[in-house]
Structure formats: C-alpha cells, structure tokens
Amino acid sequence: MRAAILREYGEPLAVREIPGPEPAPDGTVVRVEACGVCRSDWHAWAGHGEWADDRVPRGQVLGHEPAGEVVAVGDEVDRFRPGDRVVVPFSLGDGTCPHCRRGAGNVCEDGRALGFEPAAPGAFAERVAVPAADYNLVERPPWLDATAAAALGCRYMTAYHALAERATVGGGDAVAVHGCGGVGLSAVQIAAALGARVIAVDVDDDALALAAEFGADATVNPTDGGAVAGATAERSVPERIRDRTDGGADVSLDALGIAETCRNSVRSLRPRGTHVQVGLTTDAERGEVSLPTDWMTRWEISFIGSRGMPPTSYPDLFALIEATGIDPGALVARELSLSEVSNRLAAMEQYDVRGVEVVTEL
Predict the structure, then answer these.
(1) pLDDT tens string 176-189
(2) How far apart are CA 270 and CA 299, in angstroms?
(3) Which strand ranges, in their side-by-side order, compose the sheet holding 174-178?
(4) String of b and e for 75-86 (b: at least 16 CB within 10 Å)?
(5) CA–CA distance, 165 with 171 (Å, rounded to integer)
(6) What is the largest CA-CA distance in the chain?
(7) Measured between alpha carbons, how far is 348 from 264 in angstroms, rounded to an integer?
(8) b/e per residue 114-125 (b: at least 16 CB within 10 A)
(9) Phi, psi of 123 (to 5 degrees)
(10) Which pLDDT tens digit goes with each residue over 48-85?
C-alpha cells in the first residue's frame, strides 16, 4: 500500500509502497477514504516534543484523522464487520484500564497515539490498523460522509471535548477562542452551537472572516491596535475581550500554543473563569509558559488541559451536530492528494493554511 513516511524532520515525507497491516485479534483494518492534515502533524513533521519525551521518531507513518471502511476484522471483535463505515479517534485506549472504564480513554495508561508512535502507524496511507476496535472504533452515522468525518477526527472532537466536557460551556457563556486555524474554527462553531457568545482572536483577517461565518459574534485582530475612538493608546487583546464581554470571558481557549496566546487567553477571563489549553507549544516555548499565577489565585482562575476526546463521547458529539445542524464539513477548505501533504505541512510553518485540509486521494 502507499503511505507517507516521516524521513527527516522538516523535509518532504517519503511516499512509498509498504506492506499493508493485518488486524490484531482484537483489532480491525480500515481502508482510509479521507484523512485530515492537522497542526499536530506539523509538530511531528517539525520534530517538536523532545522536551516532553514525545518526539515522533523518523520512519513513522503520519496521519491521525482518518475515516473510511472496515476491510478486515480480528477474531475477537464483536461490534464491527467488513463494510462498516467508521471514524477512527487518534487517542487509542486499551479499553481495560481504570480511565477507559470510566469513559476517559484519551488518557489511557496504556494508550497509543495514532500516527505518532511506532506501535500505531498512521493514516496517511491506504489502510490503517485499529487496536481494541470494540472500544476505539466509532461507526459513522449515515449522514456523515468520509471527508466531513475526517474533519471531525482530531480538531473538531478536540474542540468539543475541551468546551462541552472539560469546560462545560453552556448557553449565554462568553467564550474567547485564541487562534482560528482548524481547531480554533471548530471551537467557534461548537461554542456557538452550545449557545455561547463567541469572540474569535487571530492575526489573519481572512481567518477572522471564517470565524464570523462559523458563528463568532465578535472578532479581535491583535495587530490592528484596537484603539478606542477618540484615544490613541492601543489596547491589549485581554482588554478588548473584557470590553466585549462586560468584564471578561467565562471560558477562554488557546488553540495555538504559543506563549503570547496562552497568556492572553488567561488574562481575558473574568473572575472564576476557565482557561482551556488545547494548542501544543513549539520549540520556542519547549513545553513551558510563564503565567500570572498570583493574579490567577486572586481571581480563582481555573487552568485545564484538554487532549483529544474519548471514543465514548462520539454519540454526544453526533447528537449535538444532528440537533443543531452545524456542519463540520463546511470547515474543509481544501482536498489533497497524498503527494501534496508535505507542501501543506510546510505551509503550516508560515501559518499559511486556513480551515481544515483533508487528504482524499490516496
């Protein structure tokens, strides 16, 4: 089968023929119909994560947002058969640890990260193996095609878990989203569907226009100064968000992962507000960001991390999509061939990607 392999950090992926996977006794093999290209793939391609002992090794098949069709099933699998239409979460639990049994397979003690470690070759390939399929694999509803399901595969479900499950966003909450790439735009759309008032922040006016299209009530571009009429002083991002939210956001999400957006997100909150960290840091921060901890203590600010989503949460996400009519497929700005992935990863280096891009030609 054809697959795209990380050969050298920051260099084009090698697209070549490799042996196809066989199902484990408890696993399946899925024919990949679509796979998103995510900023987490860019982190892997760039060689980030060494500071957290999380650097993706050379030789890895990348890709962690697949949707497709089951083509082979292990003897111990009960829930799936060849021909089933599925989406594959990137956070693969073993299905048996205490966290998995409590519905938190995304933090499984023995979990695997699809596309990021040798034990879980990724889905920039014609086929991908899924372990513990009865726990991890998710059947797609009839109304969800493969391209839209690939858009759900990491960024959308990450945003849902962060906002609906970790921060428990509800109707009337003010939610600030810092960074309007794929996960940020997903967060805008989901927060609006949850009934929140959304303020989107990005340095790119085109990205902000997309955010407004997907439900943002207000937008902030940090580069335009934001001076109040009649005054000359520029206003900071937190000040401008507080102006738009009568004192600060209830929930603020950093979808980018650089020090500036993280601190701006925290400072944007009202007393007892909640910051959600979704974006991973770059080699500039190396996993560490300084924060105004005394201020956070004074105003009882909560800082929570959020990674992926447990597979057991998909029914709730599907129910929200169906009930509200939001369209994750609308976030797909470009469909790609496997040979184009390297150029699109390089474009992420310059923040030259808008919306969600999906490989549909394998």
Answers:
(1) 999 999 999 999 99
(2) 8
(3) 218-220, 197-201, 174-178, 249-254, 269-277, 302-305
(4) eebeebeeebbb
(5) 14
(6) 73
(7) 22
(8) bbbeeebbbbbb
(9) -115, 15
(10) 988 777 899 999 999 999 999 999 999 999 999 999 99
